[in-house]
Design a protein that fits this description.
Blueprint (H helix, E strand, L loop, with lengths): L1 H20 L5 H25 L9 H24 L8 E6 L6 H9 L4 E7 L2 E6 L6 H7 L4
Antiparallel strand pairs: 1-3, 2-3
Helix pairs in contact: 1-2, 3-5
């Protein structure tokens, strides 16, 4: 039962992300996206079980979900500026993000990595190593850390 719920959650999340990123939502696009999302959900569940990962605590989840769309928009704009202005590329680099206690590292890393401005490359004991396109702290990152760095 637990794996069926996990599969459904992964499928829903992947289908939602696919729907956000496609240009036109037609029945064919939804059907293809649903099939690919199912394959991705099966793979994600297998990888999670193999790694022994757990989603972690729900602390800061509501704040993170509220901040996600705004961060997605802001990071998309910053990425466009980065592409158009090579001088801004010096701001990109690696840094560490310390999550607030009770915040699940797995879901926080997935949420951060699904924005165009930040990608989590490692996690250990609530500390994420991220590659970011800017030295600015995003609204999502602030929500996950409680404003601390």
């Amino acid at each position: 039962m637990r794996s069926a719920i996990e599969l459904l959650l992964w499928w829903g999340l992947l289908l939602l992300l696919n729907t956000v990123f496609i240009s036109s939502v037609t029945p064919l696009e939804v059907a293809v996206g649903g099939g690919v999302a199912l394959l991705g959900a099966l793979g994600a569940g297998a990888v999670r079980r193999a790694a022994g990962a757990a989603p972690g605590g729900p602390a800061r989840l509501a704040q993170a979900l509220w901040a996600f769309p705004w961060t997605l928009l802001a990071d998309t704009g910053r990425l466009a500026l980065l592409v158009l202005s090579p001088a801004r590329r010096r701001e990109a680099g690696f840094r560490t993000v310390r999550l607030r206690p009770g915040t699940g590292a797995a879901w926080a890393a997935a949420l951060l990595s699904s924005t165009p401005g930040t990608y989590v490359v490692a996690t250990e004991d609530g500390v994420l190593t991220v590659h970011a396109t800017s030295s600015r702290v995003s609204l999502l990152e602030s929500a996950l850390t409680g404003g601390a760095r």
